[in-house]
């Protein structure tokens, strides 16, 4: 993990390993009850005979799981739990962008499973294209919307059911009554974990004009204190030099809008925690998901204008709102759509395996984690008996 993404041991142990093991324990404790046939209400047939109905769960068959680079252990093995619970076999293709971790994934799978049950195929675009030509029974893909379109197109050619876990620009709204210390700490954790390469990271902030300057100052104090004045090399690595250059391009386009950070090292792939202010939607940093440690800040006075702006764009994977007014927060959520949402926190919903996780619209389709993973990888079969 450190070689590929610069992740610290504590972050790796929690965000990559512990989350999978906790979900595994939860699944082992509950799978027997989840898999039981569900007796459904009955009624009489027109002839007077009794109709008895139930729903059973069957495996789809051979599943194809495509893992991403940003959380290569968690986001590969968590869907594998679902495939196994549903009784499926699986072929896994780890991300070629994290080759060291991909090699470890292959070793773990080879040690744990016979190859006709679960196998790993290493490779890049060529190998993925070949695999997508096969008649799988289910496909589970985690990655970018652009590649998700390619996967969905291939699945459509053979009418293969699939789950797409994608991403998008997840907004965060900080209202004028928000607890700013709480907001700064929780947004910072969500934004700069894994060097900003998290699909549900706060992509940008809409901050009420009355608290914007104070919020920025508290962000600066928090970052200086947390990283001893220098976050370069302490929040992880960007996955590739090309992505470092892409991120640098956002800053070069409007250097005067960088109010904190902005340094990077192309050779080491380190990128500093960075804040941009006075951002508008026309800026380059707002044209697509950032997937890096840059936090753009936009200002608002009327929240309805913010909601109109959010709703006019593709549906995000997550939406976060910080406010001490529960009615205000609930109103924001009721007037917007996102894969999932949080009030006064970020990222934690991903680690709660009791909840379904997934996107909506261009941020994905299908839900998983815990029981929802079992259901995702299971065909629900209705059975009727006439007595």
Overall description:
Residues 3-382 form the Aldehyde dehydrogenase domain. This is Aldehyde dehydrogenase (NAD+). Keywords: Oxidoreductase. Pfam families: Aldedh. This protein has 387 residues and is α/β, with parallel strands linked by helices. It folds into 2 domains: 2-166 and 360-386, 3-Layer(aba) Sandwich (Aldehyde Dehydrogenase, Chain A, domain 1), CATH 3.40.605.10; 171-351, 3-Layer(aba) Sandwich (Aldehyde Dehydrogenase, Chain A, domain 2). Helix content is 37%, strand content 22%. The chain is built from 12 helices and 18 strands. It has helices spanning 2-5, 9-35, 74-85, 99-112, 125-132, 145-157, 180-192, 212-226, 241-253, 303-311, 326-334, 371-376, and strands at 38-44, 50-59, 62-66, 89-93, 118-120, 138-142, 162-165, 171-174, 204-208, 258-260, 264-265, 270-271, 274-276, 294-300, 318-322, 340-343, 364-365, 378-386. It is globular and about 75 Å long.
């Amino acid at each position: 993990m450190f070689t590929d993404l610069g992740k610290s041991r504590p972050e790796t142990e929690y965000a990559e390993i512990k989350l999978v093991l906790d979900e595994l324990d939860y699944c082992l404790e509950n799978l027997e009850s989840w898999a039981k046939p569900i007796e459904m209400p009955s009624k009489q047939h027109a002839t007077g005979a009794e109709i008895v109905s139930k729903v059973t769960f069957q495996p789809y068959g051979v599943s194809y799981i495509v893992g991403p680079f940003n959380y290569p252990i968690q986001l590969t093995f968590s869907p594998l739990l679902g495939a196994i619970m549903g009784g499926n076999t699986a072929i896994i293709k780890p991300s070629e962008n994290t080759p060291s971790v991909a090699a470890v994934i292959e070793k773990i799978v080879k040690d744990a499973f016979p190859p006709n049950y679960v196998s790993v195929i290493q490779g890049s675009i060529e190998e993925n294209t070949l695999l997508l030509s096969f008649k799988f029974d289910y496909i589970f893909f985690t990655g970018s919307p652009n590649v998700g379109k390619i996967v969905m197109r291939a699945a459509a050619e053979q009418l293969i059911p699939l789950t797409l876990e994608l991403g998008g620009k997840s907004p965060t709204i900080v209202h004028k009554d928000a607890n700013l210390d709480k907001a700064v700490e929780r947004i910072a954790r969500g934004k700069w974990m894994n060097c900003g390469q998290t699909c549900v990271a706060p992509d940008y902030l809409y901050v009420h004009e009355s608290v914007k300057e104070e919020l920025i100052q508290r962000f600066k104090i928090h970052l200086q204190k947390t990283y001893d004045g220098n976050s370069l090399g302490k929040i992880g690595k960007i996955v590739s030099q090309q992505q470092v250059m892409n991120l640098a391009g956002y800053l070069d386009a409007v250097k005067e809008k960088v109010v904190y950070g902005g340094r990077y090292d192309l050779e080491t792939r380190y990128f500093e925690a960075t804040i941009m202010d006075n951002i508008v939607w026309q800026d380059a940093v707002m044209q697509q998901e950032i997937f890096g440690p840059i936090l753009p800040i936009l200002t608002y006075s009327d929240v309805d204008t913010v909601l109109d702006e959010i709703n006019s764009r593709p549906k995000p994977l997550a939406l976060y709102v910080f406010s001490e007014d529960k009615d205000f927060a609930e109103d924001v959520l009721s007037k917007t759509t996102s894969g999932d949402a949080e009030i006064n926190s970020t990222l934690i919903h991903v680690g709660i395996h009791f909840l379904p996780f997934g996107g909506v619209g261009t941020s994905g389709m299908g839900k998983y984690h815990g029981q929802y993973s079992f259901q995702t990888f299971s065909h629900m079969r209705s059975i009727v008996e006439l007595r």
